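User: Before I run my own analysis I want an independent prediction to cross-check against. Here's the chain; please return only the C-alpha cells and, at the end, one sentence I can use as a sanity check.
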Amino acid sequence: MIAMPKSLKRSSKGFTLIELLVAISIAGAIMGVMTMTIMTMMRVGPKNNAQAIVFTQVQNAGLFISRDAMMADNITTRPSNSFLSLYWTGTEPTPVIHTIDYVIENTIEGTVLKRQTSPEGAITQIAEYIDLYPATSANLTASDSTTKAKLVFIIQSSFGGAEAHRTYAVTPRRM
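Assistant: C-alpha cells:
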C-alpha cells in the first residue's frame, strides 16, 4: 500500500471547504451592511449641512433685525429699495439720527441680506440664500391705540434643497 504524507492525513489540523465558505459568506454579509451604512452617510451628510446653513442664515438675520428694531424710534417697512428701514436718535453730545436699511440683493450665488448703516456708512452682509418677497416680509402692526406697535417679520432661506423660515415679532422699546 502507498503511504500517505503526514500533511494529508485526517488527523491533521486545518479548515474544511464548508468552513471556509461559511466564513466568506459571513464576511460578505458584514461588508454589505457596512457598504449600505457608508452610502447612507454619504447621502445624508450634504442634506444635514444644507439644513444647518439655512437655519444659521435665518437666525443671523433675525438676530440683527430684532436687536436693531428694539432700539428704533421709527420703523418703515418696504421702502423703495429696502426690505426694512429703522431710525433712532443717538444720545451723543449732539443728537444724531441713525438709520439702518436692510437690503436684499441678488448675486451670482443667490440672494444676500445686507445691513447698511448711516451716518457711519458701513455695509455688512448678515445672511445669504435669503428668499425674496413674499416669502421674506416685514409688517408693522398695532392692535389698538393703547398697545405698542410690533414689528412682525418673516425670514426664509433655501439652499441645496433645504428650506427654513421663521417668524419674528419684536416690540421696539421706544415707539
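Sanity check: The first strand starts at residue 74 and ends at 77.
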